[in-house]
Amino acid sequence: MAKRLIPTLNRVLVEKVLPPSKTVSGILLPEKSAQLNSGKVIAVGPGARDRAGNLIPVSVKEGDSVLLPEFGGTEVKLGEKEFLLYRDEDIMATLHD
């Protein structure tokens, strides 16, 4: 089994951030509460090449928090963890504190 997955071209490996199911005080939250579909970037590929052969770097870096589309991405399971593999252009935004 692979210990580290390194995406190719302009692909980004993302671990989805699951919203908490209950608050610190123990109140259960509904599944459909208004939460962002977000994730944390685990690994990025080197980038794609244009027609002239110039490297177009990926717009996110490892550790970034990103906003993900509701659908899409390729599910990847490594050990017990599940990840999603997206193309760089499919990631909607980066999230900052």
From TrEMBL:
InterPro entries linked: Chaperonin_GroES, Chaperonin_GroES_sf, Chaprnonin_Cpn10_CS, GroES-like_sf
Ligase recorded as keyword: no
Keywords per UniProt: Chaperone
UniProt xrefs under CDD domains: cpn10
Annotated GO MF terms: ATP binding; metal ion binding; protein folding chaperone; protein-folding chaperone binding; unfolded protein binding
Chaperone recorded as keyword: yes
Highest taxon, organism lineage: Eukaryota
GO cellular component: mitochondrion
SUPFAM superfamilies: GroES-like
PANTHER family: 10 KDA HEAT SHOCK PROTEIN (PTHR10772), GROES-LIKE FAMILY PROTEIN (PTHR10772:SF37)
Family: Belongs to the GroES chaperonin family.
Subunit structure: Forms stable complexes with CPN60 in the presence of ATP.
Record function comment: Seems to function only as a co-chaperone, along with cpn60, and in certain cases is essential for the discharge of biologically active proteins from cpn60.
Name under which the protein is recorded: Protein groES
